[in-house]
Amino acid sequence: MAEQEGQEKTEVPTEKKRRESREEGQVAFSKELSSAALLAGIVLTLVATSPIILDAMRKLMSQIFRDLAQRGELSIDSIFTLSGEILSILLPAFAPFAAVIIFVGIFASVLQVGVMITFKAIAPKFNKISPLTGLKRLFSSQSLADFLKSMAKLIIVGFVGYLTYIDKITELNGLSVSTPESILIYNFTVVAEVAGKIVLALVAIAIFDYFYQRWHHEQQLMMTKQEVKDETKQTEGDPQLKARIRQIQREMSNARMMQEVPKADAVIVNPTHFSVAILYDRDVMSAPEVIAKGADHLALRMRTVARENNVPILERPELARDLYANVEIGDDIPERFYKAIAEILAFVYRLRKR
Questions:
Q1: What's the Cα-to-Cα distance from 216 to each of 125, 210, 211, rounded to whole Å?
Q2: Burial class of residue 248, CB neighbours in 10 A (0-12, 13-18, 19+)
Q3: Is residue 27 within 8 Å of residue 216, measured between CB atoms?
Q4: Residue 236 CA, distance from chain mean position
């Protein structure tokens, strides 16, 4: 464990690491992008539904003054009735904002991380209440980035507000002689203009923050060489153990193959490298078969077993090489080798008759 802590995280995270991180709810997510998208949706909805909102405000003001004039004095019943009328006027006008907030909030999240449902991210973790862990988070690069983003947003909002005030100051002085409806329309226009400018600036910050969050998340997922080795052992097994298993399998396969050599009609050899055992039983076989083959030390073992069991050993270097390279154990010998094999089998059969 101490060795892993001293290692640098230089390895690209594996797919397993990424999948586990996603299951834990740790994904590259930019809150600034969601906030900018939400504010942009609200501003666009405000501009699109401004006639409906203005009409609702007119009805509201008329209703309030009409009720006050009719009732004369306020009572609990009149206030309750008036509140219901206010809600019935304002709710239809501002309902699109609720729909936009829900839709944009969901869409902005799905756009960044896809469809993901997990409760592990909100599960309580005791290491988060550790003072030492809190200090580390306080002075981390993520905290610095959050501070810079907050300062940038504060400066942008203040700067846009100041520029708008300087630009509109002469128009504000003229509102004193305007009608209430003109004042209301003017306020809507100014709010939409200021919000639009702020949205454009926040979108630029959000795009930067999105790519920063992806980079920061990738850095957090980086792994040490030891972590990669440990994960490989967990997913694919210990390489040394797998090599040992393959070696045992080869030994068992070779042992089974050696048991077939005594059944062969002949063993065709290259004097130094290859041995191929062939068998032909005309009653059950359509063509001669290769029942065993080997190279180097395995070829020598095949020759030893053949001698011990009186199986003829014939030196045919070129044929042995071709059979070893082109015919697998248990396969029929191809037709192009028939003539050479027929000669060998004829020779073997003559030996048996003698």
A1: 22, 10, 9
A2: exposed
A3: no
A4: 20
Q: What is the DSSP string of 111-166?
A: HHH-S---SSTTS--GGGG-HHHHHHHHTSHHHHHHHHHHHHHHHHHHHHHHHHHH
Whose tokens are 């070779």? That residue is: 254
Query: Which amino acid type is present at position 144?
Result: L
Task: Print pLDDT tens along the chain (354 aa).
Answer: 444 455 677 777 777 778 777 777 677 777 888 888 888 888 888 778 778 877 887 777 777 777 666 665 666 776 777 777 777 877 887 788 788 888 887 887 777 776 666 555 555 555 555 555 555 656 666 677 778 878 887 888 788 777 877 777 767 666 666 777 677 777 778 777 888 888 888 888 888 888 888 888 888 888 888 877 777 776 666 667 677 777 777 777 777 878 888 888 889 998 778 999 999 888 888 888 988 888 888 888 888 888 888 888 888 889 888 998 888 888 888 888 889 889 888 888 888 776
Beta strand residue intervals within the chain, DSSP E: 266-269, 274-279, 289-295, 313-315
How many C-beta atoms surround the C-beta of residue 270 within 10 A? 19
pTM for this entry: 0.49
Torsion of CA 113, 116, 118, 124, to 10 degrees: 20
